[in-house]
Amino acid sequence: MGSIYLRSLHSQFLFRKQLTFRPNTAIFYPRISFSFPFSPGINRRFNPYKPLVFAVSAAPTIEEEKTRMKLSAPGKVCLNICLDHQVKYGEHVVFLGSAKELGSWKKQVPMSWSERGWVCDFEFDGGQSAEFKFVIVGNDKTLVWETGNNRILKLPEGGSYVIVCHWNSTGEPVKLLPLGLEDYRDRVEGVGHKPTVDASEVGTSPFVGQWQGRAASFIQSNEHHDREVERKWDTTGLKGFALKLVEEDKNARNWWRKLEVVRELIHESLEIGELLEALICSAVYLKWVNTGQIPCFEDGGHHRPNKHAEISRDIFCELEKITCRKDTSPQELLVIRKIHPCLPSFKAEFTAPVPLTRIRDIAHRNDISHDLKQEIKHTIQNKLHRNAGPEDLVSTEAMLARITKNPGEYSEAFIEQFKIFHQELKDFFNAGSLTEQLESLRESLDERGVSALAAFLECKKSLDAAAESNSVLDLIKTMLSLSALRQVIVKGLESGLKNDASDAAIAMRQKWRLCEIGLEDYTFFLLSRLHNTHEAMGGTNWLADNLDTKKASSWNNPLRSLILGVHQLGLSGWKPGECAAIGSELTAWQEKGLLDKEGSEDGKRIWALRLKATLDRTRRLTEEYSDALLQIFPKKVQMLGKALGIPENSIRTYAEAEIRAGVIFQVSKLCTFLLKAVRTALGSQGWDVLVPGSVSGTLVQVETIVPGSLPSSLEGPVILMVNKAEGDEEVTTAGSNITGVILLQELPHLSHLGVRARQEKVVFVTCEDEEQVSDIQKHAGKYMRLEASSSGVNLSPSSNDRDAVSFKKNLSNNGSSAAKGVAVKVPAFNKGNSSLRLIPLAEADVLTSGAKAAACSRLASLAAASNTASFRVPAGVVIPFGSMDLALEENKSTKKFMTLLQKIETEGVENDALDKLCKQLQLLVSSLHLSDDIFDSIMSMFPDEARLIVRSSANVEDLAGMSAAGLYESIPNVSLSNPTVFSDAVSQVWASLFTRRAVLSRRAAGISQKDATMAVLVQEMLLPDLSFILHTLSPTEQDHNIVEAEIAPGLGETLASGTRGTPWRVLSGKFDRTVRTLAFANFSEEMAVSGADPADGEVHHLTVDYSKKPLTVDPKFRQQFSQHLGAIGLFLEQKFGCPQDVEGCLLGEDIYVVQTRPQPH
Predict the structure, then answer these.
(1) CATH code of residue 171
(2) Are 217 and 350 in the same domain?
(3) 1120 contact partners, CB below 8 Å, separation of at least 6
C-alpha cells in the first residue's frame, strides 16, 4: 500500500487521539457555500474574490484562539510558522528547539495539519534568538529529525510575522514576513490552502475555492488543443473496477466522457454484484475531476452541456434506486453521498438542445471591446458549448472578478448580464450557496416544509448578522430549525424514485438531495461553534465541578448539542437506529436530572455512570464511522492516485480530510468533551481491571490475540497491547510467554476471554481513555511493569533481569509453557456401545454426559430445594458420549476420522496446514446425521413445537483447571419439527470439538486430541429479557462476601462473546444484601428470538434503547434483582463447595440458571 497505512484507530493510526488532544487543523471545502461571519476557530479568510475556506481546530479553546490572534504586545513577537511538507498517513510533525516556547530541546511542540503542510503559531519575547528543527513522529513513536545544522531564528523587538519552511532545507534563510492583524488572522487560520487560481482573479463559490487544477487564462482564438498537457497512466497492480476506470480514463479526455465512465462503472457493478468498489472508485475519481486534479480537455468533439446533464440524470437515478434498496449497506450509502455533489444539474434548461445561450449574447455585445469579446467567446462560450467542464466555472469567475475589479470600467448592463450568466453556470454545476439552493425548493414544499424553511432561513440570517456575539441558545435554536427542515427533506426523499417520474420531478429530487447534504455541511459549522462556546464557558473541569455541587443544569446545553449532532448522523443514513437510541437515552438522562438518592445509592454517581455508558456508546458510533472510511478510502485512493498521476500530497491526506471535514468530527469532539468531564466527576482514569495482579514484560502491540501474532524471536515475558478482541480467544495460545494483556476496547469481565485469562493467570486490563492509550503506545517495545488492582492500574518502566529470571523459573517449574500450570487431567468417560440411549437430564453424570450436563442435572435437583434463592432450570436431555462415534461408524468414516485426528495431534502452527486439517475434520463431522432412534426419543420428551437449544457438553470443558468457556458451539432456536435442521445443529456441536482454537487450547493444556469427546445437551430454549453471569467470588475485589454480576439484554451470547460494549455490572453482598452499581449497559444490540420466528437456528439483533430498560431506569428493580442474584450465588457456592461461575437469565418474573462451573482463580 506504499505510504498509506490501514491501522486500528486505537493503535498505529492516531486520528481518534487527534480529535481530542492533538491540535490538528483540517481544511474543509463545502460543496454549498455559507454566507456567515465565522467564530474563532473557524477560518474567516473571506473577501469578495477569495475562495471560501473552512478550518476547524480540534484543540484550542475560544479564549486560546483570541489570545493567539492578538497583535503583538510591546516587546513581544507573534510568529506563525508553516512547514510546507506532508508526511505519511498517521504520522505528524513536531517542533524541538532551544527556546522554552519551542520545548527547550526536551518537550515536543505539536504542529497542526493542513492540506498545505504543518502549521503552528507562537508568542516570543522580542530580541531573542533560538535554534530549532522539525521532527517527524512515526506511527510507532520513532523520531525522524531533519538533517543538517539547526535552523537559527533571530527575532526583532516586536511585531507579527510569518515563516514558511521546507523539510530538510535547514540551510535556507529564515525570512520573517511582517503581517498586520488582519493578515495575521488570515495567515493563522487560512494557511494550508493555496489555490492554483489567484484569489484576486476568482469569485467566491466554493466550487472554485477547492480548485487545484490549471489557472484560468484567457485566449482570443481557438487554442484549446494547444494547451493540453501530456498525462501518464500506470496500471501496474490494478484489477477490477480500478483497472477499468483507469483504462477508460485514457480515452475520456473531456468531462462528459469522464461522467460516462462513471455511469458505465456503476451499471456494470450492479450486474455483477460488486457495487461498493465501483462506488468508491467513482467517488474518488469524480472528486479529483471536480477539483481539477484530473484535468479535462477538448477532444475535437462537439457536445453541448445537455449531454453532460443527461448522463448526470442517469447516474443520479441509479444512485437513488440503490439508496432506497433495503439491502444497501451503510458503507454504500456513505460513499453515494460523496458522489452526489460532483454531478451537474439536469434541470430542463440544461437538457434543452441549446442550453446556456446567454453567454453567446454577451460575447456579441456592442458595449465591450473586440478583444474582450474574443476572450469571452473563445475562453467561455465556444469551450462551454463544445466540451463543458469544471474549468469553465473557474474561467467564468476569473472573468467576473476581472470585469468588476475597477468600478465604471465596464457598463452596468454588461456586468449585470454576466452576473446572471454566472448564476446560471453555478446552477448547472450545482455550486450555489446553501440559501440559493434552499430557495429553489420553496415551490416544491408543502405548508409544513415552507414553514420549516422560513424558520431556518430566519435563524440563519440572525446568526449571520450577529457575527461572533451569538449565544449558545441562538446556535441551538438554529440547529433545531435545521433539524426540522432537514427532517422534512429526508422524509420527502424516503419514498424513493418512482419508475414513471417525470424529468422535472427527477431534477427537483436532485435539488432536494443536494440541499439535504448542504444542511449536513452547515451542521459542521454550527457544531463547531457550539463546541467552542461550551469550552469558553469553563470546559470539562467546570462541568465536573458543577456535577459535584449537583448543578446538573450546566450540562443541558452540551448534552443538547450532542443530541442534535447524533440526530444529524442518523439523518445522513449512518446507522439511524443506533443514532435514534443514543438520542433517546441522552434526552432521558438530561430530563431525569440529579437525585440525591437512587435506591440506596448516591444519585450523582448513578446519573454520571448512566451518562458515561451512553457517551461510550456514542464514541463507539463515531469510531465505527471512522473505521468505515478508513476501510473504504485509503487503499483505493492510493491505487487510483498513483495510476492517475495525482499529487502525493492529495493521496496522503484524502481519508483524513474526509473524516475531519464531516459532522462525525464535531460529534466526536463533543462526545470526548463530555466523556472527559464525566470521568473527572467519577474519578475514573479510563482503566478497567478484569484480572488483577502484577507482572513485567516487554510491551508489544498487536492487532488481535492469535497464534503467530508474536515474533518467534521474542524471548522473555511479554505484555500484549491489543487493539481489538472477538471475545473467544485464549491468550496463551498466542504465546507461552504472555504475562499480561492491555486491551484497547471495553470488554465484559465475565466474557469467555476474561474467564480464560483468569484461568491462565494472565493479568488483564482494558483501557478506553484516549490520552492514556496514547501514553501507553509511547512505551511499545520497552520492558514495563503492569500492576492492576481494584484501586487502579499502573504501567511503569521496569528492570528486566530479575523479572526474566523469575519468569523462566516459573515456566520450568510449571512444566506447561502455555497453561502456566500442570496439564489438566481429563475425567474418565464412558462412550457406551452400539445400543446408546438418550439420557434424561436428571440422570446425567460426568461419565456419560460431561461436566456441563452433570452440573445442569444437579442444578435441576437444587432448584426444587431452593428457597430464598429460588430459581428454575429448563428441561433437557443428553445425547451421550459415543453418539458421534456411532454416527461415524454408520457413515463408514471412522478410518478417515482417525487418520485426520492423528495428524492434528502433531501438526505445527507455523503455516496453514493445521487450519486445513481442522477444516477437513469439521467438514467430515458436520456431515454426520443423528440416528433415527435418538431423534425419535428426543421427540417423545418435548412438545412438537418446542423451541430448543443444542449445547455442547464436552469432557474437556467446565473443569476446575479448564473452563474452556465459549470454546465449543451452542446452536439456539431449533425445533424437532424440522429433523434436518435439528440434526445439522447436533453435528455442528460435534464438529466444534475440532476448531483450530479448540485443538490449540487442548494442546496447550496437555490434553491429547484423541481423549476429547463430546456429548450434546438439548434443552428448552428460553426467550429471556435479561441474561447474566455471576462470579460468586468477585474477581476484582477478591472479597468472599460479594457476588459480582454482569448482565446483558436478551440472550447471553452478547455477554460471553467479545461484543463491543459494557454490561450492567453490580456487586451484591452475600450476607448484608447491599448493592453497588459499577457500570450501566451500553451494548448497541441485543440478541433475541421472537415466538413468531421460525426455529431455524437464527437469532435477531435488535437495537437497544436503555432509557426503556427497567434495570437502567428503575432503582428498586435494580436493587431487588441484584439481591436475588446475590442469594443464588451464595446458595450455589455453598452447595457446590467452591466459588462458581453461574450463567442464567430472567424471563418474566422467573430467574433461570442454565449452567455453573468452578470459578477459575
Answers:
(1) 2.60.40.10
(2) yes
(3) none
Residues with Cβ < 8 Å from 1033, sequence gap 6 or more?
1039, 1040, 1042, 1133, 1139, 1159, 1161
Flag whether 315 is in a domain.
yes
Distances (CA, A) of 654 to 26, 195, 658, 927: 11, 17, 6, 49
pLDDT recorded at residue 209: 82
The pLDDT tens digits of the residues spanning 154-190 come to: 888 888 888 889 898 888 888 888 764 334 334 333 3
User: Which amino acid, residue 100?
Assistant: K
Does 375 share its domain with 296? yes
Amino acid found at 678: V
Rounded (5°) CA angle 587-590-594: 150
- Spatial separation of the C-alpha atoms in residues 43 and 184, rounded to whole Å: 12
- Tell me the three cell numbers of residue 848: 456419560
Higher pLDDT, 853 or 1059: 853
8 A C-beta contact, residue 1068 and residue 1125? yes
pLDDT exceeds 70 at position 821: no
3-state secondary structure of 276: helix
Residues 670 and 692 in one domain: no
Regarding whether 691 and 678 lie in a shared domain, the answer is no
Residues 641, 723, single domain; the answer is no
Confidence of residue 734 (pLDDT cuts 50, 70, 90): confident
Within-domain flag for 941? yes
The residues annotated with a catalytic role in the active site are: 752
* 1036 neighbors 692 (Cβ within 8 angstroms): yes
State which of 758, 789, 814 marks the end of a domain: 814
**Structural domain tally of the chain?**
6
Residue 64 has pLDDT above 50, yes or no: no
Assess whether 270 and 369 both reside in one domain: yes
Q: If pLDDT is split at 50, 70 and 90, which confidence band does 831 have?
A: low
Q: Per 3-state DSSP, what percentage of the chain is helix, strand, and coil (rounded to 5)?
A: 45, 15, 35
State the pLDDT at residue 974.
Answer: 92
Identify the burial level of 129 via C-beta atoms within 10 angstroms of its C-beta, where 0-12 means exposed, 13-18 middle and 19 or more buried. exposed
What is the DSSP code (8-state) at residue 1096?
B
Amino acid at 656: E
Residue 699 sits in a domain whose CATH number is 3.50.30.10
How many whole angstroms separate alpha carbon 119 and alpha carbon 111? 5
Same domain, yes or no: 272 and 387: yes
Lowest mean pLDDT among 567-581, 608-622, 747-761, 1130-1144: 747-761
Asked whether the beta carbons of 518 and 31 are under 8 A apart, the reply is: yes
Mark which of 416, 432, 448 sits at the end of a domain.
Answer: 432
Residue 331: closest CA among 287, 275, 393: 275
Q: What is the reported pLDDT for 62? A: 37
DSSP track, 662-697: SHHHHHHHHHHHHHHHHHHHHT--SEEEEE-EEEEE
Q: Is residue 500 part of a domain?
A: no
Q: Could you identify the residue written with the cell 507455523? A: 910
Domain ranges, residue 789: 687-814
Q: How far is Cα 809 from Cα 728, in angstroms, rounded to an integer? A: 29
pTM for the complete prediction?
0.78
pLDDT-derived band at 960 (thresholds 50, 70, 90) equals low
Cβ count near 1124 (within 10 Å):
18
State the pLDDT confidence band at 1161, using cuts at 50, 70 and 90: low
Q: Check whether 443 has a pLDDT greater than 90.
A: yes
Residue 232's pLDDT band (cuts 50, 70, 90): confident
Q: Could you tell me if residue 1005 is inside a domain? A: yes
pLDDT (tens digit, 9 = 90+) per residue, 979-1034? 999 999 999 999 999 998 889 888 878 889 999 999 999 999 999 999 999 999 98
User: Do residues 307 and 419 both lie within one domain?
Assistant: yes
**Contact status, residue 319 vs residue 517, Cβ threshold 8 Å:** no
Q: In whole angstroms, give the CA distance from residue 333 to residue 572.
A: 9
C-alpha cell at 392: 469553465
Distance CA 1133, CA 1151 (A): 17
